[in-house]
Input
Amino acid sequence: MSGLSLVRPWYLVLLLGGAAGFGATWWLWRPPLAPLRSRLSLAVRLLLLAALVLALAGVQVRRTPERRAVVAVADLSDSARASTEETATAVRQMMAAKGPDDLFGVVSFGRNAQVEVPPTRQPTFAGFQTRPDGRYTDLAGALQLAANLIPDGYARQLVLISDGRQNLGDAAEAVSALRARSVRVDVLPLGGPTGAEALVLALEAPTQVRVGESVTATARLRTTAPAGGSVTFQVDGRDVEARKVDLPAGVSPQAITLPPLDVGVHRLRVVLDAQPDGYSQNNVAEAVVRVLGPPVVLVLEGAPGAGANVLAALAAAGMKVEVRAAAQAPPDVGAYTAYDATAIVDVPASAFPPGAMAAIAASVRDLGRGLVAFGGARSYGPGDWKGTPLEDALPVRMEAPQPKERPAVAVALILETMESPAGDAVALGAAEAVIDQMAPDDEVTVVRMGQPGARGLSEVVLPLTRPVDKAAIKQTIRDITLGDPLGYGQSLTLGFDTLRASTAATGERRSPAVHRPVASLVQATERPRPNWPAARTGSRRGLDKRTSAVGLAVATTYPPSSGKASSGTPSSRSPAEVTWGKNGACSNQGRRAERVESSRIWGTSAAVLAW
Output
């Protein structure tokens, strides 16, 4: 037998409204088509509308099997025990009325459901042989068991024979779920009309708590009419609290916060004594609470004392802590059942014994235990955790980024006038650009060549300092009035002596050597004529022992392609052709340096050469 059903039948209203709208539109504004094609287009649109509406309505095609399977679900709880013979008679009548190809079975229930007769074509039933716990009535559990007994290929039907006085489960919810599975549920009520009834639906409490945690239990009471009486809460057979209650018709919750419970399993019980009440057998409900001891945490440390802070924090939270060296980590997953969590404190992968990391990961995956990893210089990526079971157990990846380190730099800016205000501005601007590129743990000093407006001795304008306040350093450079030196030797010696006081090598960057280039901004038309012995003296003064290289920065106030210097002297040499060798040796042969950084500033070519 087949048929149609709609999950949301109210959507059919859209079909009527849409069809009327399409028809009116077609009648008023007919498309410019031949009459037959016009009617055909309207029919296609109406079919599409109908398909859409039926899909929204949830149309379903149901095919009902010809054979039936009927299961009688009989209530044998204390409230229905007086009707046991009446129930047995109803079961025998249903068994006699079944078809030759139908199945018939019997399930009896009280607190628990039991199979009296499994579904079969030739059932035999003389009377009830099972004796379920009659102190409770669980309609929902019995219906679910009966439905699960019926095999596929049969129309499924359950007949509930009960007085309906449940005090466990939710029968209404169970019937709704069975209906969604195409299981028909019929009810055969027992007894006549009943009077007022008061009962305990359930006692709700957490199934598991830690010692010291409070436990709140809630009793759900239901009455068919207003009632008054008392509610008594018990723990392990001892009365904890008895209170008087006035219950309105319907469901009423009664909550209690129990006193602290010891470690172990405790049985909670609630007893309702109310009037009016027809049956007292359903006035009791129970629950079980398991109280666990304080959490136990295994701390694995990579070095003695590494987990001291973790130990103190866990102990302050009331947890039990066991500290071991990582080399003593258990390699068997079964050993971790004694712990609630494992804490790893800065342990490299090589410190674990074989199988220990796999056991820890299995305790998380299979046993549900906790895992906390505290990082350090020897854990995670630096500890070679990549590709290990620990990486799989943790929600992070171990791809350690490569550190980008450079040695600290000490720079001496030795400035000479460019013979014009515009040229001096370029030289000072290039010096400021050097400051912009320096890190906070670098060092810089500024030496002015000569005296303003005349030749003279050079002087240190800015002592060796770290460029923490770059704006102040650049302002100092802008305030300099440049001059001509008597010679380059005294300026270079002054720069060398200032760099000797550098402490950049002891900064935060862990570099074995400090890179100390000497930057000299000069005119390209005046070839640098330093005092070579003075430069070599600088290396003898210890700079070469702590210095990785010495370089030269050159700036000109004209583009190299112009062929003119600021003084009008022709020049064919670009700044990149003037280079300094290691330890102060000079070459203007255009030798290629290892690194050349060049930029153009206001039509000016600048180069920084380093080896």
Q: What stands out?
A: The two ends are 94 Å apart (CA to CA). The chain has twelve helices and 31 strands.
